[in-house]
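Record pair follows.
FIRST:
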Amino acid sequence: MKQKQAPCWYQSISGHPERYPLDQIIYRCPHSGELLEVRHDPDRLSSRKPSEWRELFDSRWGASSGTHASGVWGKKEWVCPLVEDEFIVSIGEGRTPLVPAPRFAEKTGSADLRVKLCGNSHTGSFKDLGMTVLVSMVNQMMAKGAPVKAVACASTGDTSAALSAYCAAAGIPCLVLLPKGKISTAQLIQPIANGAITFALDTDFDGCMKIVQQLTEAGEIYLANSMNSLRVEGQKTVAIEIVQQLGWQVPDWIIVPGGNLGNISAIGKGLLEMRAMGVIDRLPRLVCAQAEKANPLYRSYLNNFQDFEPRVAGKTMASAIQIGAPVSVRKAITVLREFDGIVEQASEEELANAAAEADRDGLFVCPQTGVALAAFSRLLAKQEIKPGDSVVVISTAHGLKFVDFKVKYHDGALAGIKSTFRNQPIELPADVDMVRKNLDDLLPPGVR
C-alpha cells in the first residue's frame, strides 16, 4: 500500500529533494548547509477552489473563541495542519488592523498608504505570529516524548518577549540571550516578567546568535530564532491578512523593515503560495527597508546581490533591526528577486521624523516602522513608487516598547537629530483665562 504523504514537511531552500518531518529537530539541510523551509502538499491544498479558500478564511475572521479566534490558526490548513488542536498555544495573535495614514500620504504625494499594525498583538510585535506555531509544535513534540528541555532564542527584544510569553502559557522552560544595554527597558522586562532564564551578554545580537546556535546543537534545547522555519509559517499570515483586508486585492507595494530578514522572507512566501493556489492573480513589489547604520542587505542590493558581506551593525535607534549578519539573507534575496524587489535605507533623522509624523495619524509606531516609512518617502521622491500606487507599510512593533525613543524625540534630546515634529506640554498656572489665551494662539483659524 502506498504510504500517505504528509501534509507538510521541511525541505532545503537549496533545492535538495530530501524531506524531513516537522517534529524532527533540524534547522539546516545536512547536505547543503542551507536553511530549511516548510513545504505544503499542493494536491491537498488544491482540494478547495480559490473562491472556497477565500470564503473559508472570511467565515473564520470574526470567531470570538476557539482555535479560529487566532488570525494564524484561522488559516491552519496553510500554516501547520500537523499540530493537533489540543496542543495549540494561542494568545489571540493576528487579525491586526490595516490602517490608512492619510496625512502622511498626502504630504508625500501618495494617494493610498496603509500601515499594517502587527505590533497590536499580545506581546507588542509581529513575532507572536511565528511563535504561536513554533511553541505549539514544541508543545506537541514534548507531549509525545521528544527530549526537549527548553526553548531558546537570541534577541534584540521582540523575539524574546514573544517566545517567553508563549512558553509561559505552555509551561515550557525558556532561555533568552540578549545584548547587554542594547534593548529598551520595555523589551527587557517582558522575558523577565514571563519567568524566562535571561542572560544579558556583553556582545551584540550577532554574538548572541552565535552562542544560541552552539547551545542548541545537541537538540535538548530547541532553537526559536527565525532560522527555524516554523516561525515563517506563522509570519506569512501577515501577507494573507493584508490581501484579505483589502477585499482579496493585492496592493502595488509592501514595505517591510529588515534586520534578520525572516519577516520579508515570510511575507514573500505567503504571497507566492496565494498565487500558486489561485487566491491572487498577481504579486506586489516588495521593499526591504534597512537602517543606514545596519544595512548589509542594502549594500548587497547596490551590487545586484552579486555578493553579500556581513558587517558589524552600528548603533541605530531602530534597535530591533540592528543586525549585521542576518541568518535569513539567502531566503530574503531569493524573495526579492522573485518580486522585482528593492532594498532602501534610512538615516537616523529620517527614521525618527517619519515615525513622529506617522504618530500624527494616530499610529504611535516603533522606530523600525519609521525606517519603512522613510524608505517609502525616499522611493516616492525617486519616482519608483508613483503617487497613485497602493502601498502597505508593515509596522513590526508597538510604539509603547520604545517610549524612551519617543520622549527623547519630543524633548529634542536625540543627539544629532532635528526633531521636526517636536511637541511639548505647555506649563501654565491653573487659570482658565490663561488656558483660553493660549488656545486662541495655538488653534488653527476656523477652530477658535
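SECOND:
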Amino acid sequence: MKPGIHPETMTTEIACSCGNVIETRSTQERISVEICSVCHPFYTGKQKLVDTAGRVERFKRKYGERRSKE
C-alpha cells in the first residue's frame, strides 16, 4: 500500500432514529441512519409499511379490489 494516500479513521457513532447507537471506525465522526438491524423488519419479524406520498393507498385502490374470474 502506498503511504500517505489513505484517509484517517476515527471512532464513529452510528445513531439510528430508533435510538440505537453503534460504535465503529470510519472517516466521519458521526453518522445518522433511519433503519438499523434492531428496527429493520427483516430482523425483527414485524412489518412496518412506510408510505411515501400515498402510494400504498393508490396501489390498493387500483389493484386491491380486482378479483379473479372463476
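COMMENT: The chain has one domain: 10-63.
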